[in-house]
Fold this sequence. Notes:
Number of strands: 35
Distance between the termini: 44 Å
CATH class of the largest domain: Alpha Beta
Protein name: Glycosyltransferase
Number of domains: 4
GO molecular function, one term: glycosyltransferase activity
Enzyme class: transferase
Number of helices: 31
Domain Glycosyltransferase 2-like: 28-187
Structural class: alpha/beta
Largest sheet: 9 strands, mixed
Keywords: Glycosyltransferase, Transferase
Mean pLDDT: 87
Strand content: 15-25%
CATH topology of the largest domain: Spore Coat Polysaccharide Biosynthesis Protein SpsA, Chain A
Radius of gyration: 35 Å
Low-confidence stretches: 1-10, 407-411, 875-901
CATH superfamily of the largest domain: Spore Coat Polysaccharide Biosynthesis Protein SpsA, Chain A
Shape: elongated
Helix content: 25-40%
Amino acid sequence: MPDSLPVRPVTMPRAMLPQDPAAVAVAVVIPAWNQPGLLPEAIEAVLGQQDAPPLAAVVVDDGCPSPSTAAVALHYAAACPGRVFLLRQRNRGLSAARNTGIDFALAAFPNCRALFFLDADNRLRPHFLARAWAALQAAPVATGWFYPDIDEFGAEQNNACGGDFSLLHLIVQNYCEAGSLVRREVLERGLRFDTTAMRAGFEDWDFWLQCARAGFRGQHLPEAGFLYRRRPESMLAAAERQRDHLLRQLRERHAPLLTPRALAALEAAEAPRIALFEAERPGALLFLDPDRAAEVAAPELRRRLLAAARAPGAVHAPALCLFAEGEALDLLRGQRLLPMLLWWAERLLREHELVALEIVPGEAGLELELRHGPSAPVARSALLLLTGERLVRLAEDPLSPEVVSLDGEVPLPALARLRLTLPGPLPAPGSGALRRLQAEIAALGRLHLATARMPGPWRTDWRGARRGMAMAARAAIGLGTTLPLLPEPGRREIGFLLPLFAFAGLEKVVMRQARVLRGRGWRTHLVVAGALSMDWGPEVTESFDTVTLFQGLGEDRLEFDTGYFGGVTSRMDRDPAAADALGLLALCDVVVNTHAVGCHALMAPLRRLGVKAFGALHLVERTAWGEPNGNPQTLAAYEHAYDGVLVISEALRRWCIGQGLPRDKLCLVRNAPGYAADPDRVAAALRDRAERTGPLRVLFLGRLDAQKGIDRLAAILAATDMPEVAWRVVGREVLADGARPLLGVPVAPPVQAPEELDALYAWADLLVLPSRFEGVPLVILEAQRMGCAVAATDVGAVREIVTEGEDGVLVPADLPEEAIIQRFVEAIQRLAADRAALRALGARAAARAGALTWEDSMREFLDRLEALVPAPGPAPVLAPVPAAVPMIADAAMRGSARVAP
């Protein structure tokens, strides 16, 4: 080597015979820039590999400003012909240097089966590549790379990267060192290190994610012998200073991996969320989705729980442990409530040690009540839930008073109790869940004592716990706890979001729409945003695949004084708890928001996640002074966040156009009767009414609220208190708006069953609806179908289903109050006297309403859904990421590069 070159002397390897390029089995690519003093160590580490297949070191001088770099490489190339090669290029960065080495090796070494990337300042122990080569020979082709533990020198630290490969974990943290052996087939697929977006750092993380998207997986190489030089100032340190920017770039490039569905599929495959210990089952079940569980022997699961407690970064164990009685699980599955209760429990276990669910019988509705503290014995609970960590902690201390006292009340301040009230009769909860919990604690305790003296790993596992990776990945896209569900193959998912559920007209419309969609292969999900109770009946389980109630996630964070043209605006998206609300809806293909005002603010985040959003409007409400206000005004403020808006009438469609909503976004979905009628009952009602004599039977059926004109109804009742008229009033107050009570008139409670409703409509000759504002009331359509004439105020879109003098009576809404009441009274008296006219009105009404179907009324909406969300075909294969990917969303990805703990 000429004395004039400014390089330190290097140890010359003994002369080697030239090597035929066709013999090379493994090529080691060494990018070199500005580290000529360390480069000899890297080259000699390659040349000193023992028991390895034929090797070649390819040094890529990336435009290094020091001539010593090229001189060192040439020095070794001359001494080791065919074993050391030098490539030189202008400075283009680390990724470009690796890519240059890849391209050269693939072309120059036809029999090369793998490449290894060794940075110029790192080292290898003598048997590293022999171990890596043996692993490659034994693994299937789908195993694309082999990554080591990371033993540092300079700053001393030994970092473990063991355990089965997890793509879900890799999405959150990069635990695959660039110094990994990569199979030739991976690189022949065109996969390369990014030279643009990731040039400032995290390029190896990006590369492994590319490989995973192409269908390859990594494999840990234990005790490999990789040595990483740790310095306080380095490329890694520079990258960490740009972490937020680089994570954003990484997230944008790999957005297909970060969709809610992709994360759910990974969680189910690699990190099932829940372990179920069923009282009557000897083993256990692991699952994300309760309907797709894998059975595991209880001893195996216990060993996994303990292993995860000792090596949380290497071993996955379920985050939640569920102890339940089979009868209770079957009940909750049948009522479509199990996903909701698991969602609630996971959220509560963030702040509580134990969640206990008790199921009690009720009268008519469903109610979920949250309590704190040991107010009742845990033994009565049908379900018990705690975290896997908590279960292990209890087992590690078998004499804990907390464990001993589980046979009575649990004296834990962090106990949360859920009480679910369902219409009975229900099976009485027993103590099976508690007994199984106690048995598992005891078995875990024995296993812990038997293995407690086993030595722990000497390397430090710097990674986060695997049981938390799914949660961290969801947080990266703004989601909290998601429903424990997986999409069903071949089916699409649609969520219906409502503020309340009271079996009124709006809820019936939603149920009918859901049934039509279920019949067309969709899975339907009901989410009630503003209450922990709802009306309940068989129609619910016939309409929805899941039912979820929530309250307190920010849905009531409304701004009344800064609204949009009089409509309120929502701050729900700024509430930290709203991430859980997004989690409820994120797995849907489509969400339909029906009057859940606070949830308008969730639609834009959902659309960024790929969910299609529709608003649904039923009427223009009015204030006590008659001023238009309510849901349509509020939705107009959020129109930009919706893919479409469903309206139930032509009148409402015109109103929305007048308010500036785009005509093309409006989709007309006219109402039809709220339930399917029995043709025999309809025919019998028409025959009976044709032969009927006696007083005119008049019915009011609806909410006893101001909107329905209850004060007008009271006056009409008083004015028609005569032998020729028989009244029935059926309903209840829902809105609690101070409507005038009906004095002296018995009020029957509302009915829900179709046969009970048909009986009411069949009894009546005339339905009276003196409302102040309406949409398209289902009660009118249902009464008409049974041949019952209608007298209603001409408000909203009532005139689209009632024609004055043809099939009913319309009272103008712009008259003085006294005149409106008088018109109703006159109509009742006139029809009581002229039964022929009454029967003619009813017959024409029956002909009109009897021809209506939900399938016909939803045709336009169904066509839009087919265009927006085509029926799924085979699962797509994730292709390699291109060189540049457009931005997908705003939130910065949270995660971790490879850093010391």
